[in-house]
Amino acid sequence: MGAAMFFGCAGVAFGPALALVLLTVAAEPLRVIILVAGAFFWLVSLLLASLIWFVSVRLSDREDARLQFGLLVFGAAVSVLLQELFRFAYFKLLKKADEGLAMVSEDGRSPISLKQMAYVSGLSFGIISGVFSVINILADSMGPGVVGIHGDSPYYFLTSAFLTMALVFLHTFWGVIFFDACEKRRYWCLGLVVASHLVTSGLTFLNPWYEASLVPIYIIVVCMGAWAFFTAGGSIHNVLKCLSCKREEDSHVMMYSALRVPLED
Amino acid sequence: MTELSAHLPQFQHGQLTENFPDNHLSNTNDNSERRRHDNSERRRNDNPESETNGQPQNNLQQVVDQDDEEDEELTLKYGAKHVIMLFVPVTLCMVVVVATIKSVSFYTRKDGQLIYTPFTEETETVGQRALNSILNAAIMISVIIVMTILLVVLYKYRCYKVIHGWLIISSLLLLFFFSFIYLGEVFKTYNVAMDYITLALMIWNFGVVGMICIHWKGPLRLQQAYLIMISALMALVFIKYLPEWTAWLILAVISVYDLVAVLCPKGPLRMLVETAQERNETLFPALIYSSTMVWLVNMAEEDPEAQRKASKNSTYDKQGSQPQSDTAEADDGGFSQEWQQQRDSRIGPIESTPESRAAVQALPSNSQTSEDPEERGVKLGLGDFIFYSVLVGKASATASGDWNTTLACFVAILIGLCLTLLLLAIFKKALPALPISITFGLVFYFATDNLVQPFMDQLAFHQFYI
């Protein structure tokens, strides 16, 4: 272990998230605020879920291992549902903020669109969720030790990192799809997002049988990614156009007589 | 405990700004003309980076006629930028403190307590411990209240020299002595061999440049960096010497005190701000982190619009109440003798006499009143930095949830700061920056440490993800 494991796993888990934040969020103050506020909402949802789990554990028999396991699964399910509920609450808040921003802006348009807000909020949920899941593990990976010395999987750190990366992507995609579904009132989309979150969380219960958990989760990531891409307005045509790097012909051809002296600033 | 303001007075002579075309002072009578000229120039220079959603630049006419509504609009629009201007230094300070706590074990070792917290927490019973910590917190808070009242009294009776001396001594202590100890501990942690001569040179340079930047003039970024560093040092001292329960209690009580002192009509801090406004002075510019240049007021307000804005500028820090705390520059409105001599040598002896002030006051009031909103900065007192860092540092030092708790407190404090700035934009007067953030921070600390950490621990044990 040591620094190599730490940096490797941190890079795997948070590399894409860091790149996305640096390229798309860090430059705009409003997006940074939305990022931090999204993290706050996720934290509150986690707090409530932990409270419920804690109370249920306190009220139950500590010795019964199966019961404790069942309560953990129950706690995880409650947490997933609460996360989606708070995502909806965040959507409501952002919608209101969007209207407020549009009102105070000079031209009646808000400086940030709802789709951008959806993306940033999804990213924020993903980052904070990933961080909370994996940061202590990463901190431990810096120190001395042997992974899986008692018969557990020796790939614990690496698979945790990959799962975290998947989770970051998933939350981003879910954010985009969710907000769009709420906006257009397509409730079946909402249900599908919640269901896929539950399925993803459920698949992690199959750890350490990583073939059964990691591979399907990544398949879900790819599907959600495609769905979010099309929801956000992308299309095959756009992708081809982007990949072809062809400079678009300027369709504005000015006649000489139509040229005017530019207005004084 | 310390406040934020959304407005800064307009004048920026003497200090350099990045895109200021010319900065020498012309005749005082041309002051307003020049300011308007400079503002419009600056606006043009700033336009590429400004946050106007692609709007054409406001022409001068429009801006001159700015009324309250537009003012509010701009405040809200640039509010996001101000929030980030405060997020960054607060984050930096917390990162420094947490990094130090995690690596240098000196600051988590129990080596006694301050004399302000005489009761020990190593008691037999929980009840005794609780009682001791309550007594400790009470003593600390009374010390702070007494110091603040002393500061207000000194300020009211214009004992600027005493305040100045007090603050210089505290900043000397921080910049030389505490940083020497910090450096020593860092060297011990990383087993770096160092000789006294090199050390003396380093500390000397660090301290002297710090004193100059903080109390006099210096590049803005350097001044901000020094303020962050001394806040971090102070926070580390508190984290080391305050026992656990006492620390949490002090944090809670001090946010209540901050609320009371700033908002109640007879609160000491409010009186401080109002006295400063009456006298048209800036309050201790070096005790406050400012995100833009510190403006030195050169002459009395000539124009009601700007006067109104100046009166909204309330920035102060009751950090002066702490003995080892920071730095300030009070007294002659910020104009020390050296500054005046320097100014005289640069531009010739120009003093604003009552006649010149009256003359400028008689000027037509279409002088530039609207500040370029981008130049409006926000100010946050150093005490806020210190207490935010104490909270996060204590969370990282003593929490069983470790990084989860630290991050939760960090997010909570940032959100509290965001909400405080939102309230500031709405109410436009000095507001305490501690209550909301510290409340969120405390709630999240205890909740994460006791509820979330066992849950996440169990999930991580089975490698479940939620």
UniProtKB/TrEMBL annotation, chain A:
Q: Which domain of life is it from?
A: Eukaryota
GO biological-process terms attached to the record: Notch signaling pathway; protein processing
Tell me the membrane topology, using the record's own terms.
Answer: Multi-pass membrane protein
Task: List where the protein spans the membrane.
Answer: 6-25, 32-55, 67-86, 117-135, 155-180, 187-210, 216-240
One of the record's GO cellular component terms: gamma-secretase complex
- Entry keyword annotation includes Transmembrane helix: yes
The record, for InterPro entries, names:
Aph-1
Q: Which UniProt keywords apply?
A: Membrane, Notch signaling pathway, Transmembrane, Transmembrane helix
Where is the protein situated, by its record's location annotation? Membrane
What is known about its subunit structure?
A: Component of the gamma-secretase complex.
Return the similarity comment: Belongs to the APH-1 family.
Give the protein's function.
Potential subunit of the gamma-secretase complex, an endoprotease complex that catalyzes the intramembrane cleavage of integral proteins such as Notch receptors.
**Name of this protein:** Gamma-secretase subunit APH-1
The coding gene here is Aph1a_1
From TrEMBL, chain B:
The UniProt entry, under Gene3D superfamilies, shows: Presenilin (1.10.472.100)
Q: Which GO terms describe its cellular component?
A: axon; endoplasmic reticulum membrane; gamma-secretase complex; Golgi membrane; synapse
UniProt keyword list = Apoptosis, Cell adhesion, Cell membrane, Cell projection, Endoplasmic reticulum, Golgi apparatus, Hydrolase, Membrane, Notch signaling pathway, Phosphoprotein, Protease, Synapse, Transmembrane, Transmembrane helix
Chain spans, region Disordered: 1-66, 306-351, 357-376
User: What Enzyme Commission number(s) apply to this enzyme?
Assistant: 3.4.23.-
Membrane-crossing segments per the record: 83-101, 134-155, 162-184, 196-214, 226-242, 248-264, 407-427, 433-452
Q: Which EC class is the enzyme in?
A: hydrolase
| Entries under InterPro entries matching the protein | Pept_A22A_PS1, Peptidase_A22A, Preselin/SPP, Presenilin_C
What kind of membrane protein is this, topologically? Answer: Multi-pass membrane protein
Polar residues biased stretches: 12-30, 312-327
Extract the SMART domains matched here.
PSN (SM00730)
Q: Name one GO biological process term.
A: cell adhesion
Chief site of localization = membrane
Q: Can the keyword DNA repair be found in this entry's annotation?
A: no
The subcellular localization recorded is: Cell membrane; Cell projection, Axon; Cytoplasmic granule; Endoplasmic reticulum membrane
Q: Write out the GO MF terms.
A: aspartic endopeptidase activity, intramembrane cleaving
Question: How does this chain assemble?
Answer: Homodimer.
Domain note: The PAL motif is required for normal active site conformation.
PANTHER family with a match to the protein in the record: PRESENILIN (PTHR10202), PRESENILIN-1 (PTHR10202:SF18)
In its UniProt entry, what is this protein called? Presenilin
The organism's taxonomy opens as:
Eukaryota, Metazoa, Chordata, Craniata, Vertebrata
Gene that encodes it? Psen1
